[in-house]
Amino acid sequence: MVRYLLFRLMRLLFALWLTASGVFLLSGSLPTDIILQPLSVGEISATASSLQQQRLAEQRFRHRLGLDIPLFYFSLPTATTHQQWQWHGRHNQYHRWVQQLLHGNLGRSYRDGQSVTTLLAAALTYTLPLTTLAATLSVLLALWLATRLAIHQQIRLPALRLLYALDALPLFVLALLLLLLFANPDMLPWFPAYGLGEESELVNAPMLERIGTLLYHLVLPLISLTLVNLPHLVVQLDAALQNERLTAYAATARAKGAPEKQVVQHHTLRNALLPSLSQLTDLLPALVAGAVVVEVIFALPGVGRLLAEAAATHDYPVILGGVLLTAVVRLLAQFLTDSLYLVADPRIRLRT
Amino acid sequence: MSVSLYFADWRRRVAIGWLCLLLVSAVAAPWLPLPFAPDQLDLSATLQPPGTAGHWLGTDPYGRDVLALLLFGARTALRLSLPAAVLTTILGTLLGATAGFYRNSPLPIDSIVMGLMAVISSIPRLILVLALAAVQPPSINTLLVLLLCTYWIGPARLVRAEMLRTREVPFIEAARATGIPAYRILLRHALPNTWQPALAVFPLSVASLIALETTLSFLGVGLPPEIASWGRLLAAFSIDPSAWWLLLYPAAVLFSTSLALRQLSK
């Protein structure tokens, strides 16, 4: 078992390294002018009057960001610079980046110079409650709904059709529709459309009130994240329950006079949960990806919005940090699922 | 299943009708007698509700006609998702079939393909494409390549599983026994029996690609801003939530297209 988990971990770390390196090296192919443009304009034009001074200031700036050294260990022959393969040794951007990464340093944002770890940590305080709440809500709701559908077979088909239609709506369209319906002064102004409430009002408020305001602002984002993940979960669970429904032990339970509710809740649900557990591995990363869309729409200062803004402004230290964070979430989800399997199915414990 | 049985369901006929209508109007959009061009700015008539001054579906914050933007947005969505879906299906089928077929051979083809699939699926697709698109200059062809790199794993996984079943079937064994070279068995005997699952999910991958394209455009990543897209219309709505026509029309088109595509793969 330990070997299996270690193998999983190794593969995931390899995946992490490959993805991050891919993003890093691809980012090197982007002309540096695009990155420099928004941030260097102020600094460079403030200090330089002549063209030569401007050139010098630009060079200093590139040196500070570490953009003046080669990107990788070697460079391919190109027509413009040189004709043959060139070996640069350890003095390159990639080596420096990996070294920093292994020391836990993700670099600084190109936009405001803040360290990426600080930015991500601050954003996580909003994204973490959002995603964990959404995960709990969707799992509980899916369990309840699937059990209901198994007990009341007559509402099963219409309900599944409704879920099927719901599944066809992309998350951002669903969130925008909720925004139009429930956060609109012309329709139903029940919930706030943006942000997390006034910061100044909340500083002195008691803890309970602060949590209450936070939850009130998170209602619509939570509903959209839950609704979008619900169809997959319910359909999987429902298929598993349908399989268990016709088994001999379920028939035995019915024959001894147990009502259908008890048959489902005490007998078939436990066995149906097992094949549905693997859904959890995909649920958490899907919620993180969903958080990107939802946080942009509802203007929440979380990781997803950070990532989307970084993507729109080519701020790739932040993008790389976000990608690494997502992969870590995936890793945690994988471990969670594997250990839940161990808890739920004694056969796996015995096998290895 | 025979062709006539496939068309027996009325829902499927409606779905095919809608998709044909969308395809024809998207292809013919530049030649349709529209009252306004999609790139025609009119700063005196911004955010007009539907039905005013010849704008049947209203205008966006730059005074562009929503109907024209919808039609040209359909053009963008199909221009990106159809080639991407076709290419990913072909690529995924070939890679999945090869991986499954050479599973026990000394060449590590299967473990390489499986490893690649594990790498690509370890990061959510939206975040992966978002990160990769953000470090490239925005263009429709770059996005196509990125989608190609990330979407082939879906058909590949299905075809590989199917191939693992097919390679044990007696007629493959018979082909082996007669001494036909392995690559020929793969191409002529095994592959024609394994590509159906990839075809079955083809409409689903088109739907998923359209959803991803609109999401990326909504976030302002991937496509250059001058290209009309449904996602940009919805982004305009999120800036001004009182302009309901910027949400409802693109959402309805997106929803019905997605539903129709799902109906096809049932």
TrEMBL record, chain B:
What topology in the membrane does the UniProt record assign? Multi-pass membrane protein
Q: Does the keyword Membrane apply?
A: yes
Name the coiled-coil region(s).
Answer: none
Q: Which InterPro entries match?
A: BP-dependent_transpt_permease, MetI-like, MetI-like_sf
Q: Which domain of life is it from?
A: Bacteria
- Annotated compartments: Cell membrane
Q: Which residues form the ABC transmembrane type-1 domain?
A: 78-265
Q: Which CDD domains match?
A: TM_PBP2
Q: What UniProt keywords apply to this chain's record, in alphabetical order?
A: Cell membrane, Membrane, Transmembrane, Transmembrane helix, Transport
**Record Gene3D superfamilies:** MetI-like
Question: Could you confirm whether the keyword Transport appears in this record?
Answer: yes
Annotated membrane-spanning segments are 80-102, 114-134, 140-159, 198-223, 243-261
Which family does this protein fall into?
Belongs to the binding-protein-dependent transport system permease family.
- The molecule here is called ABC transporter permease
Read off the lineage from the record. Answer: Bacteria, Pseudomonadati, Bacteroidota, Cytophagia, Cytophagales
